[in-house]
DNA sequence: ATATTTCCAGAGTGACCATTGCGAAAAATG
DNA sequence: CATTTTTCGCAATGGTCACTCTGGAAATAT
């Protein structure tokens, strides 16, 4: 009878199930943080957008900081996925070019906040929020490392000239994305971002082997 | 005797003079806003750093938003002065080059916050602070216009090739500065910023007439 | 059914937010 | 010296902050 007691893989919890969809709520929260920032989005704002009460929020996500971290993860998984896809391109120059043109595309999509949720987030904050700022800063650092790794692979595979400085070129591309995020938040059009990105692309192409 | 009644240029006010130096207090306030951001710096933080009480602050500056605006002006006058100086350079390419290398210098100076106080400030905020965000955004727009004007002058004077798109090149340079500000706030060294700026300079030089 | 577990609604927690009234102290004018 | 004018220190304003206590309803397992 009770042989497979612990073998049941997805045992439903005993009590009343959650009334709202966690992922859906997270998506709404992410967009609110994206638009207002970590300090600018209050719990009242979040619960209103998510359509739940504070204690539902706190039972599903343990704190505002934790909810923000999950929202950032959601953003990386859903919106930032195209970044990873662009870098997976076989040729390094094409990869970086796609990275920039897709940034221009993503940063100006209608029906959602402009700019990047990570590139230019929590650059300054109250002292009590410094851990959160450090977390986002680390995410930016990870992206820079990703770009740098792609550049190094490009050098190894002979697509980029051996004299290329991976650190400098990665920071250059990263700065372009960050600057595009700022200008997108200031209302720059997709065309304007593409035009400025073209300058960066020209510089990248100069390093083709 | 009372001939020069209204001619007196600097008539001291009648009452008790202010106990603190206004400019000095403003400088301290600017640095606090610079480090913590508009939303991150509380009145308590500001009064502590400025060494005055709240009502002294409110009598000298009318509100937090107004104090912030004055702090931004102070920043432009004192720190941003080098930007204007760089753009005054006779040759457009040299002007833009100086602009970027001095940004690398200014953004990593010891003894004060890293990054730019304007380039990457108040990108997101609570809805009630949107007027402040718009103000800073306008300042960024003005800087972009300044760079663009310098590019146009460079084309007119024959230093830059006639095919140069002033809008795109100005946005490109602006994005570099904004990106450098982000990375400086994330802890990038002056050398790292100079290295990435060199990529931008190469692209600028490509437009030499 | 009954028992058990969890969710959700209203209201409220102390703490901190930007901002201010009040009265005393201080400096300049007459 | 007396008057005027202004600053400044203490304390407090209502409001919002992130966060939670309590109680009853709801949905599962037994």
What would your notes on this structure say?
The structure is a homodimer of 209-residue chains. The first copy, chain A, is elongated, with a radius of gyration of 21 Å. In chain A, 62% of the residues lie in helices and 0% in strands. Chain A contains 9 helices and no strands. Residues 1-10 of chain A have low confidence and may be disordered. The first copy, chain A, has 2 domains: 22-68, Homeodomain-like (Arc Repressor Mutant, subunit A, Orthogonal Bundle); 79-205, Tetracycline Repressor, domain 2 (Orthogonal Bundle). The first copy, chain A, is mainly alpha-helical and 209 residues long. The longest helix of chain A has 27 residues, at 130-156. Chains A and B meet through α1, α7, α8 and α9 of A and α1, α7, α8 and α9 of B. The first copy, chain A, binds a DNA duplex (30 and 30 nucleotides) through residues 12-19, 42-44, 52-56, 58-59, 63-64. Chains A, B: This is TetR family transcriptional regulator. Chains A, B: It comes from Paracoccus kondratievae. Chains A, B: Pfam families: TetR_C_13 (PF16925), TetR_N (PF00440).
